[in-house]
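Tutorial, part two.
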Amino acid sequence: MNRSKKEQLIDQLIGEAVLSILYDNGAISTRSLIERLQIMEATESAAQRREVIADVIADIRNQRLGISRRNLTAAQKGWNRESRTEQDNNVYPLFDASLARGSSKKH
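Running the prediction step on this input gives:
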């Protein structure tokens, strides 16, 4: 599978950012990744890499905006009201309990 040089550079930059966060014993999150990429962008001397880093930051931000509290299912909204601790930690159930019932078909 052929990948463009830009895609390879994007993967390399994200990998560098994640490894540097881990090296600093930081928590991996969208926010920490964006912050680390912003630092990399500010200190990068190559114009092409700066542009790619800016594109990556914009893409990550756009991905985050697609997941909002308005799009939560009714089960997730009810779960959030019941447990403030989970809501504060941004932990949400991935599957509605009603989806697990019904079919026993696995594939």
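The helical segments are 5-23, 30-43, 47-65, 74-82, 84-88, 97-100. In part three we will examine how such features are distributed along the chain.
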